[in-house]
Design goal:
heterodimer, A: 358 residues, mainly alpha, ABC transporter involved in vitamin B12 uptake, BtuC, 14 helices, 1% strand, B: alpha/beta, Rossmann fold, eight-stranded mixed β-sheet, 15 helices, 43% helix, cell membrane (chain A), Branched-chain amino acid ABC transporter permease (chain A)
Chain lengths: 358, 437
């Protein structure tokens, strides 16, 4: 009743192949996008924009990256943090080496470098599968973080080893560094997010995405119908690492303002893997839902007691936060193993029937 | 449907949160970024308790600073940089604006330097964080008195020279430098290089990777073979205890093993049991409970207002460090109040207070902390203080004991390095160093 696709007649191939063929979906997504870009910066305060929305959007990009690799192409990876670090460090090198080039290219350069590194570390996936592959990507995690800390070249020989993200402008407005307003950083990040999500959505429903899914579902069968495992797996690694690299560069430039190895340690890799699993494997929407859930729930729980006015010690709040958070993840995975994206699909299903379910 | 309802409810209550957080009160707001949870909690808990105990004591004994009560609000960072940034953003506006931050983490300090400068809130990173922030011309809002890592490295070498009978005796000596392979552990290497060249000693580097802090067997076998004259350590967390235990296993002479001030907590020596007796470490404040102000702490604990569960914790140098940090902050608030009036002061006024902090021997005696913290004078150019120096403490099996006088740092070695690093920072970030005249 509320949500329906009846009465939608497609009269051209273009209409049938549209990104969102159902008008309701289309208007909804357009409305959400416009809301995010135009309305949110005006109604949110600095804390919400700078400390909640910016990191959630950046982590969503990383989660889309990992979802491409794990959810669509079926290659398990524990190296997400390292690929983010590659993006951050190489983005920093590019931006400081070419200070006059637009910052957008700096961020993209971080992504491209990360993609190349991803191809190198993705090569073993041609011989190794499943858990064994996860272990080899773990090697990437440890090696890259070690490399960036070891070689002073990556931090421009800074004695402290933790360089600051340099301030850069677009149209005369600062978008990176600490002096940039939360609104400017948010708009910058949200534009990246929308563009990358749109590209990812188109990739996964096109030829490339279908070959990834074929490899994921059964690689021998995929090979028999003419899909080349080499190109397919390496393209998944490259594109996934590109997304992670862009996310890492944005994390360093627009969120924590420093290029710091501990921001990209093994815990970050696990955090993003959880986002993908909780959000929904093989779903772009799920990447957003997972990132929002995993990042904001602990902060929400942490704030919750303060608002209730209960006098609970900080340590207890943090322990409760861990327990509730762990419990909720187990609960969600039992109730809905396909993740939050599946819940969303079910909600749409219900709305289609409402108010006369059978 | 249900999910949507749930999501809406969550968003609505979250929006509510932001509104409530903004209610104002007239106390002096001091947000405390602590870590009572996570891998570093064993170090974070005594730090946090010492920090809170001093503020609580001032509130309890004097009713605040000149009648302005201190409103301390904790936020747990878990030592994670992103949570630290979130905590900062959440607390910086409370009660009319945060006074000062002590992040207790080098990573969080680095992430906050520009943010806090921009928000005009000072950072006091006492003995950690960015060493070159000692240059107040480039870093107006960051303070790292009473000593920095680089000063500490020179003081440790000076201490060794004192023991050997003069700086000329350093020639031909061989040291082992054991460090956490992390920006923190690598920080003193440029200083040690300069010193090695200047005084003619050599040193071997033994990095300990953070991922395997407790596996140091091969390092210590190497040390047993090379027989260095002294071992110097820059460790943190589980690395400290392991290193001291391994050193005692190979019968390394403990009085020749010197840790830095983050390797000088009880966590470093307790795991090795009796083997750790004689181990030394640097510190920039006194230790133990034998100072006058401690009587007021006792009184506060008797009234049930203390934060430690076990008072034995007060013998831990880390508790003392939190306590000393809070004492400096309260003195800076007093300095600022002397200029701006006895009321709630803003972050910018607090910066003035920190920059004009002048702790004389007499003032320290009034505070009841003689020998516990050194006299100190901060200026516009120099945010490290005028006489960076360390004490050396030794583990006696049940408690730490200060065994040296203040060992001054070689400022003539450190100053050019600070100048060089802060100049690089200023040029990368388009900062024109302010004038201090």
């Amino acid at each position: 009743m509320i949500y329906r696709e009846a009465g939608v007649f497609k009269t051209s191939y273009d209409a049938d192949m549209a990104l969102l063929p159902i008008p309701m979906d289309k208007y909804f997504v357009i409305a959400v996008t416009l809301f995010a870009v135009i309305v949110v910066p005006f109604i949110s305060n600095e804390y919400w924009l700078g400390s909640i929305l910016v990191p959630v959007l950046i982590l969503s990009i990383a989660a889309i990256g990992l979802n491409i690799l794990t959810g669509y192409a079926g290659q398990v990876s524990l190296g997400t943090g390292a690929f983010m670090a590659a993006g951050a460090y190489m983005g920093y090198k590019f931006v400081t080496a070419f200070p006059d080039v637009n910052i957008i290219f700096g961020i993209l350069a971080g992504g491209v470098s990360s993609a190349m590194i991803g191809i190198v570390f993705g090569a073993p996936s041609l011989r190794i599968k499943g858990f064994y592959l996860a272990v080899t990507t773990l090697a990437a995690q440890f090696f890259l973080i070690w490399l960036f800390q070891k070689q002073p070249w990556f931090v421009n020989y800074s004695i402290s080893g933790v360089p600051t993200a340099p301030p850069r402008e677009i149209f005369g407005i600062l978008v990176t560094g600490a002096e940039a307003s939360a609104t400017a950083r948010y708009v910058f990040v949200v534009c990246f997010t929308i563009a990358l999500a749109w590209i990812a959505r188109n990739l996964v429903r096109g030829r490339v995405g279908r070959t990834w899914m074929a490899i994921r579902d059964m690689d021998i069968a995929a090979e028999l119908i003419g899909i080349r495992p080499l190109q397919t797996k390496l393209s998944a690694f490259a594109i996934s690492s590109f997304y992670c690299g862009v996310a890492g560069a944005l994390w360093a430039f627009c969120y924590i303002n420093t290029v710091e190895p501990s921001a990209f340690d093994i815990n970050r890799s696990f955090q993003i893997l959880f986002m993908v699993i909780v959000g929904g494997l093989g779903s772009i929407l799920g990447s957003f839902l997972g990132a929002a859930f995993i990042f904001t729930l602990p902060i929400f729980l942490n704030n919750f007691f303060g608002v209730l006015g209960l006098d609970v010690s900080t340590a207890t709040i943090r322990h409760i936060e861990f327990m509730v958070f762990g419990g909720l993840i187990v609960f969600f995975l039992i109730v809905e193993p396909h993740g939050l994206a599946r819940l969303w699909a079910l909600a749409k299903e219900k709305l289609r029937m409402w108010p006369f379910p059978y | 449907m249900e999910f949507r309802k749930m999501a809406l409810a969550a968003v609505a209550s979250a929006v509510g949160l932001a509104g409530i957080a903004a209610t104002a009160y007239a106390d002096q707001p001091i947000p405390a970024l602590v870590y009572r949870t996570g891998a570093y909690a064993p170090s974070g808990i005594p730090l946090a308790n010492g920090y809170l105990d001093y503020f609580a004591m001032i509130n309890e004994r004097d009713g605040g600073v000149n009648g302005v009560p201190l409103a301390v609000e904790e936020c747990d960072t878990g030592y994670a940089t992103d949570r630290g940034v979130e905590c900062y953003d959440r607390t910086k506006g409370t009660g009319g604006g945060a006074t000062v931050y002590s992040p207790w983490s080098t990573g969080i300090t680095y992430a906050l330097i520009e943010k806090a400068t921009n928000d005009k809130i000072p950072i006091l990173s006492m003995g950690y964080g960015r060493t070159s922030a000692a240059n107040g011309k480039v870093f107006p809002y960051v303070f790292n008195f009473p000593a920095t890592y680089w000063s500490q490295a020179t003081s440790v070498v000076q201490y060794i020279a004192n023991e050997a009978g003069g700086l000329d005796k350093l020639k031909g000596m061989r040291f082992a430098y054991i460090y956490l392979d992390h920006p923190y552990g690598k920080e003193p290497i440029p200083t040690l290089d300069v010193l090695a060249e200047k005084f003619g000693f050599t040193y071997d580097k033994y990095p300990v990777p953070p991922a395997s802090m407790t596996e140091q067997k091969s390092i210590w076998l190497q040390i047993r073979k090379t027989k260095p004259d002294y071992a110097i350590m820059w460790g943190w967390g589980a690395m400290n205890g392991t290193a001291v235990r391994e050193a005692s296993n190979i019968r390394f002479p403990m009085e020749k093993f010197i840790g830095n001030w983050w390797s000088g907590g009880n966590d470093a020596v307790v795991p090795a049991g009796k083997g750790s007796i004689g181990y030394k470490s640097a510190t920039f404040h006194g230790v133990g409970t034998g100072f006058d102000a401690y009587k007021d702490v006792e009184a506060m604990y008797a009234a049930g207002k203390g934060s430690s569960a076990d008072k034995a914790e007060h013998n831990n140098p880390l508790w003392a460090r939190g306590f000393a940090n809070a004492a400096y902050i309260v003195e800076a608030i007093r300095t600022a109040q002397a200029k701006f009036g006895n009321r709630q002061i803003s972050g910018e006024e607090m910066r003035w207070g920190l920059e004009n902090l002048d702790l004389s021997e007499e003032r320290i005696a009034e505070m009841g902390m003689t020998g516990y913290i050194p006299p100190l004078k901060i200026t516009c150019e120099n945010h490290e203080g005028d006489n960076p120096a360390i004490l050396v403490q030794q583990w006696k099996g049940d408690k730490w004991e200060i065994i040296s006088d203040w060992v001054p740092a070689m400022t003539e070695v450190v100053a050019p390095l600070i100048e060089q690093d802060s100049a690089q920072y200023a040029s990368e970030n388009n900062i024109t160093p302010r004038s201090c005249n």
